[in-house]
Amino acid sequence: VNGGIEENLKKEVLHYDYRSSYFDIFLLAVFRFKFLILAYALCRLQHWWAIAFTTAVTSAFLLAKVILSKLFSQGAFGYVLPIISFILAWIETWFLDFKVLPQEAEEENRLLMVQDASERAALIQPGLPSDGQFYSPPESAAGSDEESDEKQDSEKPVV
């Protein structure tokens, strides 16, 4: 950053020029983030149209920005920022379409199956108790109380 952060922020934000400013690319990323959070987190949308809309807007804006601006004359950063913004928008689209939405649909199906199973379980009458519900004491060892009681009874004199 030549000239310090404050001076460049004033140039980019307060003295905004479409042909030479990077601030609109930042605002585009903020718009994209807020729109997708609103659509998928707050509205719980489960369709691809929101990501398609934001990708189309982002791509069109970035293409117009590259064609109409002087970004390429500003050095390597003028090339890198629009290209990375464009690539990230398409990676987000791919990731949502092929990873996130199918995984959420799978989780929802699992949840519905568990709820359905618990509803059916309430209707089923309990049957015979399983083996785990019975308690059997361990077998008596040789010389246990019963045998010693019998021996003691036979040894006692009868009066």
Structure description:
69% of the residues lie in helices and 0% in strands. The chain has helices at residues 5-14, 23-42, 49-68, 76-123, 145-155. With 159 residues, the protein is mainly α. The longest helix is centred in the middle third of the chain and has 48 residues, at 76-123. The model has no long low-confidence stretch (mean pLDDT 76).
Structural features:
159 residues; mainly alpha
Write the layout of secondary structure elements.
Blueprint: H1 5-14, H2 23-42, H3 49-68, H4 76-123, H5 145-155
Structural class by helix and strand composition: mainly alpha
Task: Quote the distance from N terminus to C terminus.
Answer: 117 Å
Structural Rg: 37 Å
Morphology call: elongated
What's this model, at a glance?
By secondary structure, this protein is mostly helical.
